[in-house]
Amino acid sequence: MNKLYVIALIFPWLMFSQAKKPTLMVVPSDNWCITNGYTLEFDNQGIKEVIPDYKRAFQESSDLLLVVSKINGMMADRGFPLKNMESEIKSISQVSALDAMRSSKSTGAEVAESPVDQLLNQAKADIIIQMTWSVNKSGPNRSITFNLQGIDAYSNKQIATAAGTGAPSFSVELPVLLEEAVVSYMGPFTSRLQTHFDDLFENGREVSITVKRWDDWDGDLESYYGPEQEELGFLIEDWVAENSVNGRFNTKDATENMIVFEQVRIPLYFERRGRQRAMDTRRFASMLSRFLRDSPFNIENKITTRGLGEATIYLGSK
Questions:
Q1: How far does the signal peptide extend, from start to end residue (predicted)?
Q2: Which H or E run contains 118?
Q3: What CA–CA distance (Å, rounded) separates 60 from 64?
Q4: 3-class DSSP state for residue 183?
Q5: Which of 169, 201, 233 is the last residue of a domain?
Q6: Domain count of the fold of the chain
Q7: What is the pLDDT of residues 272-296, one digit of tens each?
Q8: CB neighbours of residue 176 within 10 Å
Q9: Which of 39, 163, 187, 271 is geometrically suited to a Cys-Cys bond with 147, CB 3.0 to 4.6 A?
């Protein structure tokens, strides 16, 4: 066989195999958890919200363990690294997330974080694969209807989907039914996941950054700073433009009390002490925080995060 022809065949495979893969985590969908009774109530600053109780679901549902294990295996076979959700849950502190609050040291103002946000913050997967399934019975035959949704863990945007119903089978083993139903969809599904991650690698990760003020701070975002006496809000907007990838972001809202940036593209990695490290929303927000603490602003501030893709900076105190 012609050597050049062999190289032409092998080279694309080598390039693909060396491409960096996104980190994934398979999660049962809210619908599946609610349908099967695995929920808990979370007090979100006085408003009760019903959220999935993942811990109890993994402890009590053998079917969930089998399904997640099968999807994990199928993704790993295609070269995608997986975070095991059950293991991540076990490693989270036993202290109840319902009582975990952040507050301003000087004013006592509080910002809540839900247990789901706490889980995603610790796992730090790039993409969440949300899984829903049901088993259909027709006489001795069984089939499985499934829905896989690939969701960007930072922006919460759906970036890939695969849904369908497998052919009827005499098999009674859930993993076998699942594999028979899903296998033909995995190629296009993983391809879309990789395409999305390649876009992140080139154009940056999409996050949201908000700057607010504590109500006891004597300044606001319309205060003037610097030799040119520009409004603080515009100076912050200039910083975001200069530090986001290709200056890509959107100013959603701006008042004297807050400014909200959406679709802020931040780099996936940054250099620190000669080593490449992963960039996340909190790290990017800390750079803006440092900018505001330095001259000519000298503004004390506090950073909080919600989930992976949102950070808020509070001006005036810690």
A1: 1-19
A2: helix 115-123
A3: 9
A4: helix
A5: 201
A6: 2
A7: 888 888 888 999 999 999 999 999 9
A8: 15
A9: 163
98 DSSP 8-state letter: G
39 & 183 share domain: yes
Instruction: Specify the DSSP element, H or E, that contains 269.
Output: strand 269-272
Per-residue pLDDT reduced to its tens digit, 59-77:
999 999 999 999 999 999 9
The structure tokens listed for 43 are 């007090």
Residue 101, amino acid: M
What tens digit of pLDDT does each residue of 95-119 get? 444 344 444 455 454 444 566 666 7
Quick check: 310 pLDDT over 90? yes
Q: Supply the pTM of this predicted model.
A: 0.77
Q: Which residues pair with 262 in a beta bridge?
A: 250
| R_g of the chain computed on alpha carbons | 23
Domain stops at, among 159, 175, 201: 201
Structure tokens at 191: 């391809």
Is-contact 118 99, C-beta < 8 A? no
pLDDT at position 116, please?
Answer: 66
Residue 310: Cβ-neighbour burial (10 angstroms; 0-12, 13-18, 19+): buried
Distance CA 34, CA 54 (A): 11
The three-state secondary structure class of 154 is coil
Residue 112 falls inside a structural domain: yes
Three-class secondary structure of residue 193 per DSSP: helix
Q: Is 4 within the bounds of a domain?
A: no
pLDDT (0 to 100) of residue 122 = 67
Range of the structural domain that residue 115 is part of: 20-201
CATH number at residue 248: 3.30.1360
- Going from the C-alpha of 255 to that of each of 44, 224, 242, 248, the distances in angstroms are 25, 14, 21, 21
